[in-house]
Design a protein that fits this description.
With about 55 residues, the protein is an all-alpha fold. The chain has a domain of about 40 residues. The protein contains 1 helix and no strands. Bound molecules: zinc ion. Zinc ion (ZN) binds next to loops.
Length: about 55
């Protein structure tokens, strides 16, 4: 069998509990990377830039 290494630190073996990561810490790191990479969402407007009613 091949030993699955953690894709984050590539040092420790993946823990079945946190597969494919070795720990929750590495799992969180991956999650944060994922969020960071997809944080920019096209079409997402700035908050508070809604059309404001104009007083004539
Ligand atoms: Zn790890």
């Amino acid at each position: 069998m091949t030993v699955a290494l953690c894709p984050i630190c590539r040092k420790s073996e993946a823990d079945p509990k946190y597969r494919p990561f070795c720990s929750r810490r590495c799992s969180d790191v991956d999650l944060q990377r994922w969020f960071a990479g997809s944080y920019v969402i096209p079409g997402e407007a700035d908050e508070g830039s809604d059309e404001e009613p104009q007083n004539d």
